[in-house]
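Narrative of activities, Objective 1.

The group set out to show that a structural description can be obtained from nothing but a protein's sequence at a throughput compatible with the screening campaign. Below is one input-output pair from the validation batch, recorded exactly as produced.
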Amino acid sequence: MATLTELIVLHHTRTGDSSAVIHTLSREFGRRGFFVRGLGKNAFTTMLLPMNILECEVSANSRSELRTVGKPVMIYPLAGIRNSIYKNSITMFMSEVLYRVLKDGAEEAGLYDWCRESVLLLDAMESDFSNFHIRFLLDLASALGFRPSAEDLAPFAGPLLPVLERFLKEPFSRSMLIPLNGKTRGEIAEAVLKYIGYHMESQLNVNSLKILHEILC
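Output recorded for this entry:
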Protein backbone atom coordinates (compact mmCIF):
# COMPACT_ATOMS: atom_id res chain seq x y z
CA MET A 1 0.00 0.00 0.00
CA ALA A 2 1.38 3.41 -1.00
CA THR A 3 1.74 6.23 1.52
CA LEU A 4 1.52 9.84 0.38
CA THR A 5 4.64 11.51 1.76
CA GLU A 6 6.17 14.97 1.63
CA LEU A 7 9.95 14.99 1.41
CA ILE A 8 12.95 17.24 0.78
CA VAL A 9 15.57 16.24 -1.79
CA LEU A 10 19.13 16.18 -0.43
CA HIS A 11 20.96 14.33 -3.19
CA HIS A 12 20.30 11.94 -6.05
CA THR A 13 22.24 9.25 -7.87
CA ARG A 14 21.11 8.58 -11.41
CA THR A 15 20.68 4.86 -12.15
CA GLY A 16 19.26 5.06 -15.68
CA ASP A 17 17.73 7.37 -18.26
CA SER A 18 14.53 7.69 -16.21
CA SER A 19 15.44 6.32 -12.77
CA ALA A 20 17.43 7.38 -9.71
CA VAL A 21 18.04 6.80 -6.04
CA ILE A 22 17.04 9.96 -4.20
CA HIS A 23 18.33 10.73 -0.72
CA THR A 24 15.69 12.64 1.20
CA LEU A 25 14.41 13.96 4.50
CA SER A 26 10.78 13.47 5.55
CA ARG A 27 8.61 13.49 8.68
CA GLU A 28 7.63 9.85 8.31
CA PHE A 29 10.98 8.29 7.38
CA GLY A 30 13.63 10.75 8.54
CA ARG A 31 16.76 10.63 6.38
CA ARG A 32 16.07 7.90 3.82
CA GLY A 33 16.99 6.82 0.29
CA PHE A 34 14.25 5.85 -2.19
CA PHE A 35 14.24 4.41 -5.67
CA VAL A 36 12.25 6.36 -8.25
CA ARG A 37 11.58 5.39 -11.87
CA GLY A 38 9.61 6.83 -14.74
CA LEU A 39 11.18 10.27 -14.53
CA GLY A 40 10.88 12.64 -17.47
CA LYS A 41 14.06 13.78 -19.17
CA ASN A 42 13.91 17.19 -17.46
CA ALA A 43 13.28 15.82 -13.95
CA PHE A 44 16.99 15.62 -13.12
CA THR A 45 17.46 19.34 -13.79
CA THR A 46 14.16 20.52 -12.30
CA MET A 47 12.42 18.15 -9.88
CA LEU A 48 15.49 16.64 -8.19
CA LEU A 49 17.32 19.89 -7.46
CA PRO A 50 18.74 20.26 -3.92
CA MET A 51 16.17 21.13 -1.22
CA ASN A 52 13.17 20.78 -3.53
CA ILE A 53 10.03 19.87 -1.60
CA LEU A 54 8.14 16.99 -3.25
CA GLU A 55 5.02 14.99 -2.58
CA CYS A 56 5.34 11.30 -3.53
CA GLU A 57 3.67 7.95 -3.13
CA VAL A 58 6.01 5.72 -1.09
CA SER A 59 5.69 1.93 -1.48
CA ALA A 60 7.55 -1.04 -0.03
CA ASN A 61 9.73 -2.92 -2.53
CA SER A 62 9.34 -6.71 -2.32
CA ARG A 63 12.73 -7.28 -3.96
CA SER A 64 14.74 -4.76 -1.94
CA GLU A 65 14.88 -2.97 1.41
CA LEU A 66 14.98 0.25 -0.61
CA ARG A 67 11.47 1.67 -0.80
CA THR A 68 10.10 3.04 -4.05
CA VAL A 69 8.55 6.45 -4.65
CA GLY A 70 6.19 7.21 -7.49
CA LYS A 71 4.24 10.12 -8.94
CA PRO A 72 6.58 12.83 -7.54
CA VAL A 73 5.07 16.32 -7.64
CA MET A 74 6.78 19.59 -6.73
CA ILE A 75 4.72 21.25 -4.01
CA TYR A 76 6.42 24.64 -4.36
CA PRO A 77 8.12 26.04 -7.47
CA LEU A 78 10.74 27.85 -5.33
CA ALA A 79 11.07 30.48 -8.04
CA GLY A 80 12.84 32.84 -5.64
CA ILE A 81 15.61 30.26 -5.24
CA ARG A 82 15.80 28.84 -8.75
CA ASN A 83 16.00 32.27 -10.37
CA SER A 84 19.00 33.26 -8.22
CA ILE A 85 22.50 31.83 -8.62
CA TYR A 86 23.22 32.99 -5.06
CA LYS A 87 20.26 31.22 -3.47
CA ASN A 88 20.82 28.12 -5.57
CA SER A 89 24.37 27.97 -4.22
CA ILE A 90 23.05 28.26 -0.66
CA THR A 91 20.61 25.37 -1.18
CA MET A 92 23.43 23.25 -2.64
CA PHE A 93 25.37 23.90 0.55
CA MET A 94 22.36 23.19 2.79
CA SER A 95 21.61 19.90 1.07
CA GLU A 96 25.23 18.72 1.15
CA VAL A 97 25.53 19.51 4.86
CA LEU A 98 22.34 17.58 5.66
CA TYR A 99 23.41 14.71 3.39
CA ARG A 100 26.75 14.40 5.18
CA VAL A 101 25.54 15.07 8.73
CA LEU A 102 22.45 12.83 8.80
CA LYS A 103 22.96 9.08 8.62
CA ASP A 104 20.55 6.95 6.61
CA GLY A 105 17.64 6.03 8.86
CA ALA A 106 18.24 8.94 11.24
CA GLU A 107 15.05 10.47 12.63
CA GLU A 108 15.21 13.74 14.56
CA ALA A 109 11.89 15.06 15.86
CA GLY A 110 11.00 18.38 14.26
CA LEU A 111 14.00 18.39 11.90
CA TYR A 112 11.93 18.05 8.73
CA ASP A 113 9.59 20.90 9.61
CA TRP A 114 12.53 23.14 10.50
CA CYS A 115 14.26 22.36 7.18
CA ARG A 116 11.04 22.96 5.26
CA GLU A 117 10.59 26.32 6.97
CA SER A 118 14.21 27.26 6.22
CA VAL A 119 13.78 26.51 2.50
CA LEU A 120 10.58 28.55 2.23
CA LEU A 121 12.13 31.42 4.17
CA LEU A 122 15.14 31.58 1.84
CA ASP A 123 12.83 31.40 -1.16
CA ALA A 124 10.83 34.39 0.10
CA MET A 125 13.77 36.63 1.03
CA GLU A 126 14.39 39.41 -1.48
CA SER A 127 17.70 40.71 -0.11
CA ASP A 128 20.22 40.43 2.75
CA PHE A 129 20.57 36.64 2.65
CA SER A 130 24.36 36.33 2.30
CA ASN A 131 24.66 35.23 5.95
CA PHE A 132 21.80 32.75 5.65
CA HIS A 133 23.98 29.62 5.58
CA ILE A 134 25.81 30.62 8.77
CA ARG A 135 22.55 30.99 10.64
CA PHE A 136 21.38 27.73 9.07
CA LEU A 137 24.39 25.87 10.50
CA LEU A 138 23.90 27.28 13.99
CA ASP A 139 20.19 26.49 13.95
CA LEU A 140 20.93 23.00 12.58
CA ALA A 141 23.16 22.32 15.57
CA SER A 142 20.27 23.29 17.84
CA ALA A 143 17.84 21.15 15.83
CA LEU A 144 20.18 18.18 16.30
CA GLY A 145 20.09 18.65 20.05
CA PHE A 146 23.38 20.38 20.89
CA ARG A 147 22.50 24.06 21.08
CA PRO A 148 25.81 25.95 20.78
CA SER A 149 26.95 28.57 23.25
CA ALA A 150 29.88 30.96 22.89
CA GLU A 151 31.85 28.77 25.28
CA ASP A 152 31.12 25.68 23.16
CA LEU A 153 32.20 27.40 19.94
CA ALA A 154 35.35 29.03 21.34
CA PRO A 155 37.74 26.10 20.62
CA PHE A 156 36.64 26.09 16.96
CA ALA A 157 36.13 29.80 16.30
CA GLY A 158 39.35 31.35 17.58
CA PRO A 159 39.45 35.10 16.80
CA LEU A 160 36.06 34.84 15.03
CA LEU A 161 34.26 34.14 18.31
CA PRO A 162 32.99 37.75 18.81
CA VAL A 163 31.26 37.60 15.41
CA LEU A 164 29.73 34.20 16.18
CA GLU A 165 28.49 35.56 19.50
CA ARG A 166 26.56 38.18 17.56
CA PHE A 167 24.88 35.44 15.51
CA LEU A 168 23.92 33.68 18.74
CA LYS A 169 22.48 36.81 20.33
CA GLU A 170 20.82 38.59 17.42
CA PRO A 171 17.36 37.68 16.09
CA PHE A 172 17.32 36.24 12.58
CA SER A 173 16.60 39.52 10.76
CA ARG A 174 19.45 41.37 12.47
CA SER A 175 21.90 38.51 12.02
CA MET A 176 21.38 38.81 8.27
CA LEU A 177 22.74 42.37 8.47
CA ILE A 178 26.03 41.55 10.20
CA PRO A 179 28.65 42.96 7.78
CA LEU A 180 31.04 40.24 6.57
CA ASN A 181 33.18 39.62 3.52
CA GLY A 182 33.26 36.30 1.67
CA LYS A 183 36.51 35.16 3.29
CA THR A 184 35.19 35.70 6.81
CA ARG A 185 31.87 34.01 6.01
CA GLY A 186 33.81 30.98 4.78
CA GLU A 187 35.96 30.84 7.92
CA ILE A 188 32.92 31.15 10.20
CA ALA A 189 31.06 28.41 8.31
CA GLU A 190 34.12 26.15 8.54
CA ALA A 191 34.33 26.76 12.30
CA VAL A 192 30.67 25.82 12.84
CA LEU A 193 31.06 22.74 10.62
CA LYS A 194 33.99 21.63 12.77
CA TYR A 195 31.83 22.12 15.86
CA ILE A 196 29.01 20.02 14.36
CA GLY A 197 31.48 17.39 13.15
CA TYR A 198 32.94 17.15 16.65
CA HIS A 199 29.52 16.36 18.10
CA MET A 200 28.70 13.93 15.27
CA GLU A 201 32.13 12.28 15.68
CA SER A 202 32.79 12.77 11.98
CA GLN A 203 34.90 15.12 9.90
CA LEU A 204 32.62 17.07 7.55
CA ASN A 205 34.17 17.87 4.19
CA VAL A 206 31.56 20.03 2.48
CA ASN A 207 32.75 20.64 -1.07
CA SER A 208 30.09 23.23 -1.93
CA LEU A 209 31.35 25.65 0.76
CA LYS A 210 34.21 26.88 -1.43
CA ILE A 211 31.90 27.40 -4.41
CA LEU A 212 29.36 29.20 -2.25
CA HIS A 213 31.84 31.72 -0.94
CA GLU A 214 33.36 32.38 -4.33
CA ILE A 215 29.86 33.39 -5.45
CA LEU A 216 28.93 35.34 -2.30
CA CYS A 217 32.27 37.13 -1.83
